[in-house]
């Protein structure tokens, strides 16, 4: 039986490390000196076991140098926790926050906004069926009936689960939804054999597949039925008002890091893996599933130009239909602010 979604939602990732450095061609990043005068440090939320191209700049303290202040990278377990920390003032920027928990929080009145797209991924967030239960796309309606499904509540993994099962004709009241408490807990539940399926993102998915599990639907198959999965860069609205140059500089450094990765991924892999707390092999397996859209792509209609807003509306309307939340907003346009991204420079990718 599905549990009611709370608005304080839990959210919702080869050893070739050689090669020369790619040098992105760009103009200087916007100065953050004026805004930084009132800040002694910047607190940024991120996920462990979720390798991203910008982590080279994180490790090498490129952000610190560009901003002229210490940048504290603080690991979080969920996008919902990131939103709570932004509400309390403990976090200034959330990097790679899940779209769904963000949408849940602004629906309930949180003053947050999206300023960029961090990463697009489909296969890196999924539900893995335990081999003992024989669950497939063809028989999910029968094999999941009366069984336990271990999954988060209120994040994109939860949304994907419900949309996938609806598509497969599964009665959403026919199984027991056991709320997940992070990727490690999902793996433990899966390995115990007590659940027919467990849902997670990042390294947890890879571990469960390595333990003999199977995907009920692949990420590509889910995309084909309209399920889009991506993470965002978000901030408290007031932080953007008070420190616009800091936000722009952060986005500029991120753009340059993404371009360097696109030009020579091999040179970045070991550093990214270390920052993510993973082996190079495990990190690369996730990076193979990731794409990091550049500034122009993010500003296009396919992303922040309209689609991101539409996806939030679709997700929240779906949760209303399922009885998970009381109501959705009429529009989510007000929660996407492209001003900062529009003010930074494009970066040319220079192939190594």
TrEMBL record:
The keyword NADP does not apply. It is found in: Periplasm. Gene3D superfamilies: Periplasmic binding protein-like II (3.40.190.10). One of its GO terms (biological process) is alkanesulfonate transmembrane transport. InterPro entries: ABC_Gly_betaine_transp_sub-bd. It comes from marine metagenome. Belongs to the bacterial solute-binding protein SsuA/TauA family. GO terms for molecular function: transmembrane transporter activity. Residues 43-198 form the ABC-type glycine betaine transport system substrate-binding domain. GO terms for cellular component: ATP-binding cassette (ABC) transporter complex; periplasmic space. Its main location: periplasm. The lineage of its organism: unclassified sequences, metagenomes, ecological metagenomes. Keywords: Signal. This is ABC-type glycine betaine transport system substrate-binding domain-containing protein. Pfam families: OpuAC.
């Amino acid at each position: 039986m599905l549990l009611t979604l709370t608005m304080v939602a839990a959210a919702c990732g080869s050893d070739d490390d050689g090669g020369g450095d790619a040098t992105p061609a760009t103009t200087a990043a916007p100065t953050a000196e004026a805004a930084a005068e009132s800040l002694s440090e910047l607190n940024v939320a991120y996920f462990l076991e979720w390798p991203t191209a910008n982590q080279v700049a994180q490790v090498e303290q490129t952000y610190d140098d560009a901003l002229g202040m210490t940048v504290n990278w603080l690991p979080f377990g969920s996008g919902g926790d990131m939103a709570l920390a932004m509400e309390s003032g403990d976090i200034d920027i959330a990097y790679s926050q899940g779209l769904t928990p963000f949408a849940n929080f602004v629906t309930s009145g949180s003053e947050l906004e999206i300023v960029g797209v961090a990463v697009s991924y489909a296969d890196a967030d999924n539900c893995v069926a335990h081999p003992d239960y024989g669950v497939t796309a063809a028989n999910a309606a029968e094999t999941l009936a009366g069984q336990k499904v271990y999954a988060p509540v209120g994040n994109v993994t939860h949304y994907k689960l419900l949309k996938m099962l609806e598509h497969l004709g599964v009665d959403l009241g026919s199984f027991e939804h056991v709320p997940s408490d992070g990727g490690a807990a999902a793996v433990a539940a899966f390995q115990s054999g007590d659940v027919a399926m467990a849902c997670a993102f990042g390294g947890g998915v890879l571990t469960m597949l390595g333990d003999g599990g199977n995907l009920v639907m692949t990420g590509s198959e889910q995309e084909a039925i309209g399920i889009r999965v991506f993470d965002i860069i978000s901030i408290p609205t007031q932080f953007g008002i008070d420190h616009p140059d800091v936000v722009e500089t952060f986005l500029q450094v991120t753009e340059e890091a993404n371009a360097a990765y696109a030009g020579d991924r091999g040179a970045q892999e070991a550093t990214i893996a270390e920052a993510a707390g993973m082996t190079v092999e495990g990190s690369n397996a996730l990076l193979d599933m990731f794409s990091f859209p550049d500034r122009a792509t993010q500003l296009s209609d396919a992303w922040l130009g309209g689609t991101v807003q539409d996806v939030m509306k679709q997700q929240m309307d779906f949760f209303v239909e399922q009885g998970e939340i009381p109501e959705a907003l009429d529009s989510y346009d007000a929660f996407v602010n492209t001003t900062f991204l529009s003010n930074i420079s494009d970066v040319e990718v220079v192939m190594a």
